[in-house]
């Protein structure tokens, strides 16, 4: 059983903390749909993410081993990102949440409107 009260040793809290930022899930979904992508392609696909936040998100995902970053020694440098096996294993879970959100978004918006009066 997890000890949810200990933020440093609880795997659930640790992983959810990383995945629950505004952009991480979207980056994983984009790479999952498209495969290998360059920075500007990811940026264009997501749209409203700043270059700085995309860089931060990609670095965190790389540090966790969910994506790989390959730099090609050409001028100008070419860098490509793709999901690792670990990231691929996470993708069906995120797809499930994404599908749930798509199915229920209208009801959630209606509930919010009713709640806020």
Describe this structure in a few short sentences.
The protein has 117 residues and is mainly α. Helix content is 62%, strand content 12%.
Report on this structure:
It holds the Pfam family HxlR. The protein is mainly alpha-helical. The protein has one domain (11-116): Winged helix-like DNA-binding domain superfamily/Winged helix DNA-binding domain (Arc Repressor Mutant, subunit A), CATH 1.10.10.10. The chain has helices at 11-19, 24-34, 39-46, 51-63, 85-116, and strands at 37-38, 67-72, 78-83. It has a 3-stranded antiparallel beta sheet. A hairpin with a 5-residue loop joins β2 and β3 (78-83).
The helix/strand series, from N terminus to C terminus, equals HHEHHEEH
Task: Please state the second-level CATH architecture.
Answer: Orthogonal Bundle
- Placed side by side, the strands forming the largest sheet appear as 1-3-2
Taken as a percent bin, the fraction of beta residues is 5-15%
Q: What would you give as the CATH superfamily?
A: Winged helix-like DNA-binding domain superfamily/Winged helix DNA-binding domain
Low-confidence stretches: none
Blueprint of the fold:
Elements: H1 11-19, H2 24-34, E1 37-38, H3 39-46, H4 51-63, E2 67-72, E3 78-83, H5 85-116
Antiparallel strand pairs: 1-3, 2-3
Summarize this structure as a short list of keywords or feature phrases.
DNA binding, transcription regulation
């Amino acid at each position: 059983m997890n000890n949810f009260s200990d933020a440093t040793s609880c795997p659930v809290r640790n992983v959810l903390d990383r995945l629950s930022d505004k952009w991480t899930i979207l980056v994983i979904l984009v790479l999952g749909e498209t495969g290998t992508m360059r920075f500007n392609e990811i940026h264009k696909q997501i749209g409203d993410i700043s270059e700085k936040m995309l860089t931060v998100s990609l670095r965190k995902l790389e540090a966790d081993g969910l994506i790989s970053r390959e730099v090609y020694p050409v001028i100008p440098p070419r860098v490509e990102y793709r999901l690792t096996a670990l990231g691929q294993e996470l993708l069906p879970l995120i797809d499930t949440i994404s599908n749930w959100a798509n199915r229920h978004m209208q009801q959630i918006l209606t509930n919010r409107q009713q709640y806020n009066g």
